[in-house]
Design a protein that fits this description.
Blueprint (H helix, E strand, L loop, with lengths): L3 H11 L9 E13 L2 E5 L6 E7 L2 E11 L3 E19 L2 E5 L6 E18 L2 E16 L15 E17 L4 E12 L3 E4 L4 E5 L2 E12 L36 H17 L4 E5 L7 H21 L7 E5 L1
Parallel strand pairs: 14-15
Antiparallel strand pairs: 1-4, 1-13, 2-3, 2-12, 3-5, 4-5, 5-6, 5-7, 7-8, 8-9, 9-10, 10-13, 11-12
Length: about 325
Amino acid sequence: MKLRTTLLAATALALASTASAANGWYMSLGAGWNWLQDSDYSVGPGGSTYNGNTEFDSGYIIAGAVGYDWGRWRAEFEVAYRDNNIECVAFSSTPGCFPPGSNEGVWELSQMVNVLYDIPLGGRFSASVGAGVGGVLVVADQGIIGSSFASSEPNLDDYVVAGQLIAQVGYDLSDRWQLYADYRYLLADDPEGFSPQAGSPVTWEKSDHSVLIGMRFDLQGERAPMPPKAQPPVQPRSPKQFIVFFGFNKSNLTAEAARVVADAAAAAKEYGSASIMVVGHTDTVGSDRYNNALSMRRSGTVKEALAGHGIPASASLTVPE
């Protein structure tokens, strides 16, 4: 029952949705210190034979994981090995804490599915919080319950459900390598076993605090940026044609003709034209010499009007026709 709260919190985080863009697979390996919390034990149903408390020396942990990164969210499968020696065993009926035989201890092999959320801290630093659920194989020498014949008796072992909470700080060494340090608290259901010496079932508590330093390696590296979407070619715009009408045998601009010239100047500015051809026309009445001169006067009038609208004279070419 004591594990229920931890597992509920871990499961809630493990089931959180992940909607970020995928970054890819990674693997990690770390090692550090493990502290097995002092454990109450009981021998016999409800401790009817005897009970007491066991204290442990600090030990070590080695953990490796393979996971997938979704940007801010990560999910991974982790395997970890923990080992702690027994420091002393106390009996409820006897004062004091007594050292066990040599090399008496507990080792554990856990398999966890973790989900973590990464929080950028600025620069190359980041933080992560997460939780995991899974199981752990616990193997303990019988010295954990103060058995005087621990070396000749079988180990107490059990596989139990476990959950853990994780807090982590990381530093990006490159785009694929990250150095990290984390703290984790692992809580498991009470392991159970059988003591031939006592002829009774045995139950003890188990929870761990661990601090690790490790490396994470991105198996895929940074994704190449998507090529820019091809833009459709810009179709060149056809030049516009403006017609200015003059009165019979006239070369001055009417009000309507002046509006046409203003429109032509605005279009030339919009198009960014490098040159403008002004073609003067006449009818067939009169001699060719006279009509050519009238055509040049008319085109010249248009050229001057364009210059008045900001079109340089050098950009206009007058042609009689």
